[in-house]
Every structure is written in C-alpha cells, then in structure tokens.
Amino acid sequence: MATNREAATIRKALVIGAGIGGLTTAAGLLRQGIETEVFEARRTPGLLLTGGGFMLWHNAFLALRRIGLDEAVAADSVRMRFHEFRSDTGRRLARWHLDGPSERCGAPACALRRSALHKVLTHAVGDHRIRLGSRLTGWTEDDEGVTAHFADGSTARGDVLIGADGLRSTVRARMRRGFEPPPRYAGYTAWQAITRLPGESLVPTGTFFNLWGRGGLRFLYCRLDENEVYWDAITSDRAATGLDTLRHSRRDELAAAYRHWPDPVGRIIASTDEEAILPIAVHDRPPGGGWAHGRVVLVGDAAHPMTLNLSQGAGQAIESGVALAGLLGRTPPDEVPRALRAFEAARRERTADMVSTSWRIGTLGLVHSTPLCRLRDLMMYAFFDTVARGQSYGLMLDDRLERGPVLPAAGPAGTR
After folding, report:
1. Which of 236, 293, 383, 386 holds its CA 20 to 30 A away from the CA of 180?
2. pLDDT by residue (tens digit) across 180-201?
3. What is the arithmetic mean of pLDDT over 286-312?
4. Could you tell me if 170 and 16 are in contact, meaning their C-beta atoms sit under 8 angstroms apart?
5. What CA–CA distance (Å, rounded) separates 19 from 132?
6. Average pLDDT value over all residues in the chain
7. Is pLDDT above 50 for 212?
8. What is a GO molecular function of this protein (predicted)?
9. Architecture of domain 7-183+284-403
C-alpha cells in the first residue's frame, strides 16, 4: 500500500512541445507535484516568442486560476470591456458589453501579446525544465512507463507522454502511423501584425473591433497598450488573388485592398513595418477522437486545432492542459491509460463544439457579392447582440470546465 503521495500517483511526465498548450500542461503538472520535462524541437528561445496578439476570454482565465497563473497573465494584458462588430462602411452591427459577464463569472476578457503569455508560462515551468533542440522521433511503451526517443540519440523516461506539438504534430502522426489526412484549410489567410500607433481617439483602449467587409475581407484590431495596436487582416483566397506580394510589399498590397475601409484601418496598416506582417494560412482539423493511446495523449492544437473566429484556440489549449494536469495529479502509475481515455471523453464534446462553431463563423467571411454581404450584415445587426451573444457565452462558460474530467471507477483487477 502506498504510504505517501509520491508513491500513490505518477512521478514524471514528458511534454512534447513548448507552446501554450504544452507549457500550460507542464505548469499544471508541476503544481500537482509531478516532475515534468518539456521537449521542444526549435533550438533558440526567440523562435518560441513569435506571433502577434490575441484575445483570451473569461474561460481561459478561469482555467489559469486553477494553476495560480491568472493574475500574472492579467498583469501583462489589457482588459477588454467591449467587443464591437462593424461593417466595412463603418456601420455598427453589434456591441457586446463584457463587464457584466466578467463580474458574473469572476474573470476578465483580455488582449495581450502571444509572447507575454508565453513568458509567464515559461517562468512558471522554469527554463531548466525546457530542453530546446529536442526533436522527437518516436517512443516505446511498457507496463511501467514510456520512453521517448529523440533525433540526437537521447532518451527520456516517464509515466506519460503528452503531445503538445501543434497543428502538424509529430506525436499525432506517429499515433496514427502516418495514416491521417492533412489539416483542413479554411480558405483564407490571416495577416497578423503589431504596430506602434499611439492615440486613444484613433484606437480606444478596451474595445476589440471586428470588421466584416465585402469581397472576402475582414479586419480585426485592438489596443495592447498606450503605444501598440494588434491587427489581423483576413483575406479569402479569392480576395488574395488580387494581392501581388512578389512585386510589391505586403503592407502596400494590404493598404490597397483596404483603401475604401473606414478609419483607422488604413492608418493602422500604413503605420506597420513590413517585416512585422506575418501571413498565416488558417487551418483546423474536423472534430474527432483518438487523442489517447496507451500512455500517450494529445493536448492543444495537436488534439483540437481550430480557426481563429471564436478566439478560443489558446483558450481551449489552456483548458485542456489544466484539465489533464489535474486528472493526472490523482492518477496512480498503473491507471495512466484509463485516465487519458477519461480526459479525452471529458474534453472531446466541448472542443468539437468550438471547432465546428468557429468553422461556421469563418464561412461568413468568404461571402463576396455585395447583396449577400448586405444580407449577412443585416443578420448580424438583427441577431448578434442577442442570439449570437447568448450562444457564444453559453458555449464559452460551460460549467464542465469547473467540474473537470473525472477518473472513472476501476474495472476488475488487471483491466484498463
């Protein structure tokens, strides 16, 4: 019989990937007293801090609170008080007041740099626990644990291996032995950037602006601090055929594409350094299972990648990492496979809803004709402040998050 906690639960976890999902999982595991190592294929820390800004909604902060990191993340964020939808003519279609939901659930909605969140998570894990330049090539399992193998010939041993290595996950591919379709392309590109642009009258602090236009164009922006603005120009493939970024700069081509849009869109683009604009082809994977096999499990984008339309990719990676860490903190070593299946069962439906809803919203931005765009805008004007807002918050603040996954009762002795 176990006489202490260390003997009663797993002792060591191996996390593959030092992105948001992997570091959140690692931070949660360490909080549970589980020895954890993180292995990242990229060799330099700077490469982990790429990317622009994004929104973290209330549910992400509720999850971060469970591992004691919500206040640290909020300190590096800007609280959003409004989410405003507009057309490319400047007409307001909907305006969500965020203070009420923040007060009711006890957690804010914030905008922040991706690098700011990554730094908080890295500090919580500790640099000494993150092994850079460690490219996973495979693993072997037995009744006692799992051994990870890396390209440099090194190995690591643990009770569980967690694949948090993103959309094109090596762990996922090897779990399926290579028999899996590629990620699903959404039909549009997000051109992301952060620019220096002071001026409250131009971009007021505390409002996330979400503009929907004709011709397959969208534009998102918000202030990150008194000097910086994050923005995202979303162009459908059909719209992108008019962008010639071989002969002209990305900034000039985007400025031309959005030249008829209302202020401050043009000024935001014009203020941005060319090298700051990063085009990202948007992908997800259709909802599905198969995240857990033996002592190996997927989290974050390796398990449930989604498009950007709900701003929930990072939020769901955080939720999954916290939920998995909490469950493993109650799991004896010989019950790891059963616990991983319980984690997948608890998280699969919620993340599938997020993936599907985000995909459907994205299709609204693929509309090109002016009559259909006007019909879409009319629908948003009629329903986004009421029906859509209620559905979004119903999905976001599902109380299953607080309950977390439950390890089912054990079966007959010797079964898993």
Report:
1. 236
2. 899 999 999 999 999 999 999 9
3. 96
4. yes
5. 12
6. 93
7. yes
8. monooxygenase activity
9. 3-Layer(bba) Sandwich (3.50)
Residue 262: Cβ-neighbour burial (10 angstroms; 0-12, 13-18, 19+): middle
Determine how many CB atoms are found less than 10 A away from the CB of residue 184: 15
Contact 337, 294 (CB under 8 A): yes
Nearest Cα neighbor of 365 from 213, 257, 185, 209 is 213
- The pTM of the full predicted model, rounded to 2 decimals, is 0.93
Please determine, for residue 414, whether its predicted confidence score (pLDDT) is greater than 60.
Answer: no
Say if residue 64 is exposed, middle or buried (CB neighbours under 10 Å; 0-12, 13-18, 19+). Answer: buried
Catalytic residues: 221
Supply φ then ψ for residue 234, to 5 degrees. -110, 120
User: Measured between alpha carbons, how far is 307 from 354 in angstroms, rounded to an integer?
Assistant: 9
User: Any idea where the domains of the chain sit in the sequence?
Assistant: 7-183+284-403
Confirm if 294 and 162 have CB atoms less than 8 A apart: no
Which has the closest alpha carbon to 28: 57, 77, 70, 58? 70
Q: Please report, for residues 95, 173, 202, 205, the alpha-carbon distance to residue 198 in angstroms, rounded to integers and kept in the order given.
A: 24, 45, 8, 11
As beta bridge partners, residue 149 has 138, 155
With H, G, I as helix, E, B as strand and everything else as coil, classify residue 187.
strand
> Dihedral of the CA atoms 341, 177, 351, 115 (nearest 10)?
110
What is the DSSP pairing of strand 12-16 with strand 160-163? parallel
